[in-house]
Amino acid sequence: MIFQTNNSKRPRSSEITPEKDYLNRRRFLKSVGYLGAAAALAACAPAVNRVNPTPMGVAVTKRDEFGDISTPFDYVAGYNNFYEFTTDKEGVAPMSADFTTNPWQVEVGGLVNNPRTFGLEDILKDYDREERIYRLRCVEGWSMVIPWEGFSLSELLKEVEPTSDAKYVYFETVYRPDEMPGQKQPYYPWPYTEGLRLDEAMNPLTTLATGVYGQPLLPANGAPIRLVVPWKYGFKSIKSIVKITLTTEQPATLWNAIAPNEYGFYSNVNPKRPHPRWSQDSERRIGEGGRRDTLMFNGYESQVTDLYAGMDLFENY
Ligand SMILES: Nc1nc2c(c(=O)[nH]1)N[C@H]1C(S)=C(S)[C@@H](COP(=O)(O)O)O[C@H]1N2
Ligand SMILES: [Mo]
What we know:
Elements: H1 5-8, H2 13-16, H3 25-32, H4 34-44, H5 73-78, H6 92-96, E1 105-110, E2 116-119, H7 120-126, E3 130-137, E4 142-152, H8 153-160, E5 168-173, E6 193-197, H9 198-202, E7 207-212, E8 215-216, E9 226-228, E10 241-247, H10 254-258, E11 282-285, E12 292-293, H11 301-304
Molybdenum atom (MO) binds at residues 81, 138-140, 234-235.
């Protein structure tokens, strides 16, 4: 199989140092039909415990554990990577607005004692969701601070009981080319897949998110359920998950399969380890001017360093 590795993930210069991340809010709201879409979602989705509803246009002053202010909702909802729809970050929201997210099933199996298929209602009902404001650092050099609503993946994994042979967790996004035109692009080995080592998956930071900014997750952000791994580059945080499989072997993942020299299995945020084609030592926080220094493990160093004791993080990038 031949993939267009040279073009597949090369940031345009505007992504490395975005000058025009300003989003025309009016145009965006109009194209997404935002208010109508949110109302329809709320009407057909099971009751969602709305944490801090954030009406559009209201200044947001939520802060994360580092005191950083969360990225304005318009950017979180309107500047996305979701290649199943389009590689145009501002195009994802309008193109995904009508994506079918209910009904939905997540099949959890492989090396577990209690395989289980969850319906959306199960996921929303069985787990106590809470607001988790986490940084997302895209490998392309931008970042956001996002108020997710979610729960630790570990809670779900404990319930299915991984066997002693289980060493990795493999995730798959839904494959639905009729609704996701990007999946008709042959360069990528669809469906989108990702993986974590089991101990990474069990870390309490590793989150399954079902909401954002106090409302059900928007299609653009990976509705109805997506992963959030805050100390890794954004592409590890796989969207619209339908399958989770426990395995013995390290699973193949989409970006790692396409360009292993650029996207390692671990992909921990590491300012000292440049991407082969650009530095990773600083980032542009979307909505802010200037650049910030990128922090080791995206700032979550004290919570995850132990996972990598004795490992060479240059070799294992
Ligand atoms: N299925 C799927 N998941 C995905 C992607 C994708 O293209 N498809 N993009 C990833 C990348 S590169 C990033 S930076 C984040 C962006 O998440 P956000 O749009 O919610 O900010 O989603 C990740 N998850
Ligand atoms: Mo990304």
